[in-house]
Automatic annotation (TrEMBL):
Keywords: Isomerase
Entry-linked Pfam families: PrpF (PF04303)
Family, as annotated: Belongs to the PrpF family.
PANTHER family given in the database record: ACONITATE ISOMERASE-RELATED, DUF453 DOMAIN PROTEIN (AFU_ORTHOLOGUE AFUA_6G00360)
Coiled coil: none
UniProt lineage: Bacteria, Bacillati, Bacillota, Bacilli, Lactobacillales
This protein's name: 3-methylitaconate isomerase
Gene3D superfamilies from the UniProt entry: Diaminopimelate Epimerase, Chain A, domain 1
Amino acid sequence: MLVDLPVSIYRGGTSKAVFIDEAVLPSDLGDREKILLKLMGSPDARQIDGLGGAVSTTSKVAIISKETVNDWDVNYTFAQVAVDKAVVSYSGNCGNISSAVGIYAIENNLVKTSSPQTLVRVYNTNTKKVINEYIPTPDGRLTYEGDFEISGVPGKGLKIELEFLEPAGAFSGQLFPTGQAKDVITLSDGKDIDVSLVDVANPLVYIRAEDIGLEGIETPEMIDSKDSLLQLLEEIRGKAAVLMGIIKDPKDSAVLTPGVPKLTIISKPKTYLTKEGKEIKKSDFDIAVRMMSMQKAHKSIALTGALCTGAATHLKGTIPYELVQDREIGDKLEIAHSSGKISVSVKSEIVEGKTVIRSVSSYRTARKIMTGTAFIKGE
């Protein structure tokens, strides 16, 4: 027997997700996860029997409800559905998908529009943080017309600003989950490697590209083609998760905490070609980032990863901070990734001798792709 489920599909930034009204899902978490796995077609490397796109950036779900008590507009829960494992992770948020929550809220009459833009205040339940989304609505209408482009997405669209408020400690409750700007991890081969664990919008573990024999300008395909490299990166991520207190055994990382912390490889600027063949000159950006997502190389960059990196360059003692000391970045940082570049802005202040991150922001495009009914197999 097939069970019908009303859904929508939205692209947010460089990711795509199935959006669902929370009211149509069971409250029991186990029952809910069974539905999400069936909906996306997991576990299956092709996700052939569901709506998933066979990569982590298109195997995502956004669960939405209208807020009736607090001063934000909508509640948003992000679910990362593993492609080839029966795992649904609620650890951390997806910044790219966050950019579509505001337009979903407008499309479904969860907020009133204004002109020339509409502010949608989104509460992310994963991180317990508020995101201000500023959406162009000329004459109070959502038109999807715009001339803004982002790397990794063909064409132009609405320029949506996302401002993550008081974003520190989004997962761990602390700016530095280990209490330090830099830690040392001992690998299975006995070698030590420096890492920085920073939790802003999402927790990231930073390593220098040169420390693992990379240039920092590799394509996702180059990274994914080396099994030994993937194993090394997951070992580092797993041991970072132990340092954070998420798990006890680093070997459990891919199952128990597949999404966080996010392994992030960084390096100083070098001229390179994107995976689409476009040249990015080293003079045009401040830091190079190659991120991992669900044990594979991210095709571009997670928005929360870009935001965290922007904040980290303001935090003395971290590896990102050290890598940009020869550049005048101010409050804005230009990040280069596999598909191009992204700019992020950081508002910070010094309080009692410590840097406090007040907000991090950037711009994305997003749009509705379809609204309809999905059919999943019943019990």
